[in-house]
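COURSE: Structural Biology Practicum
ASSIGNMENT: Worksheet 4, Part C
STUDENT ID: 0417
INSTRUCTIONS: Below are two proteins. For each, the amino acid sequence is given first, followed by its C-alpha cell string. Answer the questions at the end about the second protein only.

PROTEIN I
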Amino acid sequence: MDLKQYEQWKFGFADILRSARALDTKDEALRSECVSLQARLAEDKFNLLVVGRFSRGKSTLMNAILGGEHLPTGIVPLTSVITTVRYGTRKQAVLNFNNSGLRREVPLSELPEYVTQKGNPGNTKNLSYAEIELPVEMLRRGFFFVDTPGLGSPIVENTLTTERFLPEADAFVLVTSFESPLTDDEDRILRRIKNTNKKIYVVVNKQDTVSVEERAEAVQFVQDRLTTYSFREVPPIFSVSARQALDAKISKKAESLPETGLPAFEEELHRFLTEERAQAFLLNMHERTLALLSRRMGTESESHNIETLKALTKRLRELREDIFGTSAKGMEYTPEVGGEENILEFPLLQVQKSTGCSICGIILKAGFKFLSHYQYDLTIDPEVQRDHAERGGFCPLHTWQYETIASPQGVCEAYPTVTHRIAKELQRAASVSADTAAMHQAIAKLFPTRTSCPMCEQRAASERQAVEELAKEIREWKETDEKHLPVSCLYHLSMVVEALGDEVPARKLVRSQASLLERTAEDLQRYAVKFEGLRRHLTSAEERQAAMLALILLAGHRSVTSPWVVESIL
C-alpha cells in the first residue's frame, strides 16, 4: 500500500456513502449518519508530534524531512507556541491568536518574529499556535507535523504547552542527541507518552559529533534505558545527523543521504502510515459503513432501495477484499531529495492562473487586442463594414465577445451593412428556392465559419504561433533548467505534440500532463469528501480551484475552444 492507493480507497468509501445518502434525501437520520462518516474521511490526517529538549535539533530534523529551511532553528528555546506544518499551495505562515477567531497570513520569513524567544519573548503577542503551509507532496498525502516547544527550557510554560498537546498525536518522535541522551525531562515525557499507547520513535541526533564507537555505545545506552519503561513495544531507535541530511537534500546530493541515517527513519515513518495506521483506519471505516448499510436494510420497506443497498454492500465487500487482500509488504520507498515528490517526468508544469492553458491565454490576449481595433474600424470605415458584411459577420461566439466591448452606439454604426445583407439574402432565398430543402441550404450558407469569421481567422494565426513557440521552448528545455513549462489544455496538447516532431520530449510532455490530470482528479475527490462531510474549511486552495482547472484542462478556455464546438453543433 502507498499513500496514493490509501487515498483512493478512502474515496471508494466516500462513493458508497454518497450513494447511500441519496437513497432518501429527506431522511435526516440517514443524512446525519452518512455525514458523520464522511467527516471522518475528510478529517483523516497523520499527526506526528515531535518532542524533546530545546536545542536537540527537532526543527532541523523536520526541515530535513521536508527538504528545506522552513522552521526556525537556533540554540535559544522557542516560546510557548505549537507550530504545525501542513500542506498548502504556497509557502506561508498562518498565525492563530488566543481568544480570537482571527487568523493572520504572513510570509514564512516573518515566522521567527512570532515563535522564537527573540521575536516574541514570553509569548507577549498572545499567539495560540502557528501553522506553516508548504507545497510538499508528503504533506498533501496526509502527514501533519507538529513542532513543540522544547522541554526543560527556562520558560516553564513551554513544557506545559507540549504536554497539553500529547492527546492530539497519532505518533511521537522523541528527539534526543549524542551529547547527553535521555535526560530527566525526556524521561518524564517518555512516561507520559507511554500512557497514551501511541507509536513512538526515538531519534538520537547529531551523530556527526561523535565517533562510530561512541555512537554505538550511546545507542546501546538508550536501548537499555528504554527497556526499563515496560513499553508494550520497545520504541525503535534511529541514529541521524539532521543537519547533514538537510544539507544533502538542499544541495540535491542523494548519494550522501544514506550515511546521515535519515532515509531509514523516513522509510519507517512511511511504513507506519501506510501499513499500521492506514489499515486500522480503513478497517474502522469498513465496519462502520457496513453497520450503516445493514441497519438501513433491516428497516427499509421499498424493494428498489433494498436492491440498491444490496448492491452497495457488494461494492463494500469488494472494496474490503481489494484493501486487505493487497499486501503492503515489499513496497519500496525512496526518500526525496529536495523535499518534493517528483511526480512529473518533465519539469513541474505551470498552470496559468487566469486561463489554465497557456496557449488559450495567448489567444485570448491577442484576440482582445485585435477586437479592440477591429470594432473601432467597424464604426468608421465603410470598406471594413462591407468586408464584414460579405463574411457574414462574426461567428456566434465572437459576436458576443464583440458585444462585450462595443457600445450600443457602436453596434448601431457597425452592423447596418451586415444586417441589410442578410435580409437581402433571406429575401432571395424565399423568392428563388424551389423547396424547403433548397431554402435551408441557402440559409445555411449565410452562417459564418472559422474561415470567414475575421476573429476566427486571427485566432488561428495566433494559435499556430503560440504552438510553435511552446514546442520550441520544450525542445530547448534542459534537465538543469529550473523554470516550469506552461500547461496546455487537451486540444492544444495534441497540437504541441504534433509540432514537436520528436518522440522523446513529446512522450515526457504527455506523461507530465497525465500526472497533472491525475493530481487534479485527486483534488476533485478531496474537495467532494470535505464538502459532503461539512469540512469545507479544511480544503486547500488547489482543491477549491480543481473544478474549474479540470474543465479547462479537458476542454480548454470557454472563450477559445467554443467556436469549434458551435460549428460542429451547427
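PROTEIN II
(use this one for the questions)
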Amino acid sequence: MKQLFNEARDQQLVAVIKGLVMDATRKASSGHPGGAFSSADFAAILFSEYLRFAPKHPKWHNRDRFVLSAGHESMLLYSLLHLMGLLPLEELKAFRQFGSRTPGHPEVHLTPGVEATTGPLGQGIAMAVGMAVAQQQQESVLGSEFGSNRVFCLVGDGDLQEDVALGACQLAGHWALHTLVVYYDKNDQQISGHTGRVSSVDFPALFRAMQWEVMEIDGHDHKAIRQALDFACNLSAGKPLLIIGQTIMAKGAATMEGSHKTHGEPLKVDEISATKSRLGLDPDEFFQIPSKIVDYFQAHLNSFNATAEEWNHAIAIKKQENDVFREVYDQYFSQKPIELDVPLSPPGTQIATRVTFGKALEYMGRQSQSIMGGSADLEPSNNTAAFAGAVEEFSASNRSGRNLAFGVREFPMTAIGNGMALYGGFLPFGATFLTFSDYSRNAIRMSALMGLPSLHVFTHDSIFLGEDGPTHQSVEHLMSLRLIPQLQVCRPADERETLACMRVWGRGGNRPMLLALTRQAVPVLEGPVDVERGAYVCYDTDSGATNRPIDLMIYASGSELWVAREAAHRVSQMKNIRALVVSVVCWLWFDEQNEHYRNQILQTGVRARVSIEAGSTLGWQRFTGMDGLNIGVDSFGHSAPAEALASHFGLLPEQVTERIGDYLNRLNA
C-alpha cells in the first residue's frame, strides 16, 4: 500500500476512468458503462495502491492476478491498462472495433495485462479459484519466497447468479484459499431490471456458510475500500475473502444514475456532457488523461518494476545453487516433454482405454509437478484413483497435493482447470463421463479460445456404457465437440493410441486436448501408430501386394477400429477385394496435414467408402462422400448390457461385414 494517498487525486482518477469509459463506449456505439461506473472506485484504489504488478514486467510470475469476471465491464479494465502504460490510447479509441486489442470482452491472448478471457458470466471467478489453487500449490512446493502473491477478482450480480460461480466458491471455501479476494460490486441492476426480480439470496449468509470471510462496505467509500483491502492483504491463512460493495449503477451519471438502462448501452451525448461537468471534467474534451493523474496512478505500480527484477534474479541464483529447487522448478516451467515410458501390452490383450489413461496419468504425475487435476466424483470410473494415491490430495491441510476432489461439479471443475493453466506451470486435467461434457462445454470452449494446455478427459464414451441407459450414453457429443475450433478431440482406439495421445498432451503447447475413452475393454491392435497425423492407414488387407487397386475405404475411430479391421478382413475374403482401414483419431490434426497426405487418406477416387463410429453419423460424409455407408447410432440408446446394444445397433463384426457386403452389392448393381 502507498504510504500517502490523496482523496482529491483519487476522485480525479475515478473521474478520468469514467470519462474514458463514456468516450470509448460512445465512440463504439456499443458497450456497458453502468457497471464500469459502479466498480470504478474499488478498481482505481486496488490498482493504484494495492495490486502487486510490475508494468515493465507484466508476466512476472509473482505478480498479483486480477480477473475481471464481470467481463462486460471491459472498458474499466482497458482504462486501467492504459494508465499503467500497457495499452496505447489509440486502442481505447478503437474499442470493440475489428483488429483492436480492446475487444468487447477481455481476451488473455490478445491484450497485455489481461489475465483471463472473460464474458460468459461466472467463469471468471471460477478461473480465479483455479489461480488461487495453483498459487497455493506452487508456494507449498517452491517456498513462500517464490509465491507470495494474491488473486483478486471483480464480480457482478450476474456472475453470482451462475451456478458455475457458486460451485467454484464452495470449493474455494472448502480448500480455505486465503489468497483469493473477491470483490462483489453489488449494484442490484442487470439488463432486464432490478435483481430483486430474480433473486432474494442473502449473499453474506450464503458465503459464510460456504466458509468465506465476508465484509460488507459502501463500494463508493474510499476509506472503507482501503480498510477491506488492508484486511485482505494481511490474511496469511484461513478463508477466502468476499468484499461486498454496495454500489449504485452508473454512479456519478447526470440523470441516469441507478438506471439499469446504463448496463448494456452507451450514455447519450447530452448525458455524457452533463456527466463530465458533474465529475469535474471538460464536457467538450474527449479521452481526457491529465499527466498528473497518470503519475499518481503509476507511482505504486512502478515500485514493483525493481521488485520483479530482483525476484527474477533471486530465482536464477537459487536455481544455480540448489539442484533440488532447480529440478522441481523446471518440472513446472521448462516446458520439456514429460516422459511416458510405459510398456505396451501384447497384441490382443483386452484393456479399456480409460484404464490405459489411468496408468499413463499416474506415471506422468510421478514425473512432474505440473500434472494436477481430478475427477468429478468418478475416480474409480475415470481411473484417476491411482494418480490421486501417487500425488496426494490438495486440501486445506495439504497444499502440496495435486489431486483435486471436485465432487459432482463438472462446469466448475473445467473452469478451475482453465484458471490453473492461466496461472502458469500446470498441465491441468479434469475427468468425467462424456455425456456430462454438456455441463462443462462452455468452459471447454473457453480453454480452446484462450489456447490453454488443459486436458478434458471423458470416459464411457458411447452407448457401450451399457446398463445406465440413454441418459448416460453419449451419441451426439463427439461430433458436436469436434466443432469447437482448436480443440484437439482425440478418440484413441486402443492402448497404443491412448499412450500416444497422452505423450502429445505431455508436451504442453497452446491448445487443449479432449480424450474420449472407453468403459469397455478393447483389444490392443498390431502395427505402428501415427496419431499425430490425425488419421492414418492402420490396416491393409493386401499388405503384400500394394500395387493392387484399392476397392474399399473404411474409416473408424476408438472402440470401433477393431471392428472395422475385422470386417475389412472378412469382406476382402468374401469379395476378393482390397480394403484399407483408416484410424481417425483426431479430425483437427488431420485437417492440418498437407494436401498430399490428406489425399492419400481420403482416396477420393475409390467409390466404396464406409465410416464406423458408435455415435452420430452426421459429419462422417466428409470422409465417405454422399454415396458412402455411415454406420453409427443416430438415435438415443437403451438400458442394456453393452453386448446387447452392439447387436441391436448392428455394430458386431459380423453385422458390419453383412452391411458392407450389401452396400457393395448395391454399388455394383
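ANSWER KEY EXCERPT:
Q1: The domain at 7-305 is CATH 3.40.50.970 (Rossmann fold).
Q2: The longest strand covers residues 180-186.
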